[in-house]
Amino acid sequence: MAAEQDLMGKLMSLCKRRGFIFQSSEIYGGIGGFWDYGPLGVELKRNIKDAWWRDMVTGHDDTTVSAGAPTTYEMVGLDASIIMHPQVWKAVGHYDLFHDMLVDCRTCKSRFRADHVSTSECPRKPSKHPGEHHECDLTEPREFNLMFKTHVGALFDPASEAYLRPETAQGIFVNFKNILDTTRVKLPFGIAQIGKSFRNEITPRNYTFRSREFEQMEIEFFCLPDASRDWYTYWRDLRFAWYTSLGLQSDKLRLRDHGPEELSHYSCGTADIEYAFPFLECGEFGELEGVAHRGDFDLRSHMEGKLVRQGDGFVLELDADGNPRYPGSGKDLRYFDPQTRERFIPHVIEPSAGADRATLAFLCEAYAEDEAPDDKGKLQSRVVMKFHPRLAPVKVAVFPLVKRERMPDIAQDIYRELKRRWNVIYDENGSIGRRYRRQDESGTPYCITVDSQTLEDQTVTVRDRDTLEQIRVATKELMNFFDEKLNM
Ligand code: ATP
Q1: Domain span at residue 117?
Q2: CA–CA dist 485, 463 (Å, integer)
Q3: What is the three-class DSSP state of 202?
Q4: Dist CA 33 CA 96 (whole Å)
Q5: Atom number in ligand 1 closest to CA 216
Q6: Which CATH number covers residue 457?
């Protein structure tokens, strides 16, 4: 455990030093639960989001569906607003139910999630948990709604209250009819969205893992009720395979089915894709993504109003006068099947991933320490970020060996040529060994050096980040060479 915590400390310091992640508003002392991505971090996170969009939406394989799923499907995208009509959150239950239980300490005024007390540190005595120090005076657990409230318009009265969305999913459900009316999608099909979500987490912690502002990558996949079990299995397996295809290959990644007691109020089946982050206790895993079978809960709620569980199903929640407690939109959100000429509410499978947690997992997995020769051939320890080439923030770095004899000009020409296709950097400062070290810490898969041999035979040295192998490649072949290496 000490080694793992040590690893987390080293990773956080690398992220700061190299410009992956900064504390938000750091010069003012920071603000808990908010983080900024620096020049390398923004590239890494963008590559993760682009890979997700490419693999799940625009480039998904709609001809060969495995894992017993019954047919082919279409995927379309959406970008909904962050602030939505407040009735959205009332109808779907978040207004009442999107809360955590919190415990306050009357002595130190700290606040903890009731279910995290046994793993939190007492601020007065970090070696103890809240409640264990003789001065601790904890309150009973109380409900705390996680939605950030704001006001829309000039008046600050209850009628102007609105919320920053705590999940992107509802933007998809409220646009379900728009998408049916404007595209030619037929069941089964999915709507995908990447966007910011906000939760006023009681105890944001573990670096970016539990933030108050974060990005989600969510799919709502609509299908026939009868086929929903197969599609649930399909998405659960496909999403797990996506992480392994991008390099989360260690036994730190696992797929875990929820037990019945863990299921959300709407869910009839959920599996989490989890990662053993270094800040967790040995044997503990943190959620990267949840894949949930949501039945017809959301669309029905937006049609009829807030539902409550009764027996195995849901019924409309009524107020004392027998009216819907929180009415829905009243719009018909059923799907019309042109073949059977039936109208029904489709069932939904939701793979819901966090872009920040994925970024953190890829950072943790990539971190490695080994040895590499310095300029004199002597082995020195190095830190290297072994990102999958698709995710690496910078793909190639180009160096002139020295700043003379036309080497900078040739290196600049190569840099400009490759930059048309990939994120490439040019660096002429410091010894070659130091330049390699910088790129190793950034996770750049390949470095090119223009040297005196280049002047004679128009070849350059290409060094592989992971194997440290150096080969000579003709300058005019570089485009093809990297095309093969990087566009896997
Ligand atoms: P947790 O139990 O860890 O609070 P959750 O089950 O509430 O997570 P979901 O509502 O299923 O999370 O959200 C889907 C995904 O959004 C999560 O798997 C995670 O990747 C991401 N996510 C949720 N809350 C946060 C947060 N506070 N910070 C960063 N990412 C988050």
Answers
A1: 99-145
A2: 12
A3: coil
A4: 23
A5: 16
A6: 3.40.50.800
User: Model confidence over 45-88: pLDDT tens digits?
Assistant: 999 999 999 999 998 866 555 555 556 889 999 999 999 999 99
Residue 87 sits in the same domain as residue 108: no
- Whether the predicted model's global pTM rises above the 0.85 cut: yes
What does the alpha-carbon distance between residue 225 and residue 297 come to, in Å, rounded to a whole number? 12
DSSP symbol at 167: -
Look at phi and psi of residue 460 and say left if phi exceeds 0, alpha if psi is from -120 to 50, else beta: beta
Residue 184 is classified by DSSP as: -
Q: What is the DSSP letter of 175?
A: T
Question: Which atom from ligand 1 is nearest to the alpha carbon of 214?
Answer: 29
Q: How many helices (H) and strands (E) does the chain have?
A: 13, 25
Name the DSSP letter for residue 226: G
For atom 31 of ligand 1, which residue has the closest CA?
Answer: 354
Q: Looking at the structure, do residues 45 and 137 belong to the same domain, yes or no?
A: no
Atom 25 in ligand 1: which residue has the minimum CA distance? Answer: 210
Q: Are residues 197 and 276 both part of a single domain?
A: yes
Domain shared by 78 and 122, yes or no: no
Q: Which of ligand 1's atoms lies nearest the C-alpha of 218?
A: 14
Say how many Å lie between the CA of residue 247 and the centre of ligand 1.
Answer: 21
Ligand 1 lined by 289 (C-beta under 6 Å): yes
Give yes or no for residue 116 CB within 6 A of ligand 1.
no
Is the Cβ–Cβ distance between 346 and 228 less than 8 Å? no
Q: Check pocket membership of 48 for ligand 1, CB cut-off 6 A.
A: no
Q: Give the bridge partners for 342, in sequence order.
A: 337
End-to-end Cα separation, the chain, in angstroms: 36
22 within domain boundaries: no
- State whether the beta carbon of 199 lies less than 6 angstroms from ligand 1: yes
The 3-state DSSP class for residue 267 equals coil
The 3-state DSSP class for residue 339 equals coil
CB of 288 within 6 A of ligand 1: the answer is: yes
CA distance 213 to 5: 24
Each residue of 399-455: pLDDT tens digit?
999 888 899 999 999 999 999 999 999 999 999 999 999 999 999 999 999 999 999
Burial 449-467 (b: 16+ CB within 10 A, else e): bbbeebeeeebbbbbebee
